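Input for the complex:
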Amino acid sequence: MDQALEEARAAGVRGEVPVGAVVVSPRGQIVARAGNRTREMSDPTAHAEVLAIRAACADAGSERLVGHDLYVTLEPCAMCAAAIAAARIGRVYYGASDPKSGGVAHGARVFSHSQAHHVPEVYDGIGAAEAEALLKDFFASRR
Ligand SMILES: [Zn+2]
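Predicted:
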């Protein structure tokens, strides 16, 4: 999660919402890391999780990441949760809760939905205090 928080901080410096994600292989190696780049790429889908999953899949030469873990500093949105399910990620560790846009414990609750093809193990609140502080500072500085 420290690496994901590092990616989140770097995203904030780039003027992006500070969210970072890391994908870890079944052998415990970091295979991809990314921060939000929606502004830079002019792409509303360029969330940290999507970018990290894309990079990890490219690296693996597969559209599935069976047995991989994803660490992300903020509760994934519905789009990212769907991507996580499609990639067959084994475990998701996330930091801050996101009542506004989250799609795991809030809103669409993608993994609890009957259409979910794959349900990862989910662990929330990991490094939450730091992830929340990053987001709070970022939005406070925008006002
Ligand atoms: Zn997302």
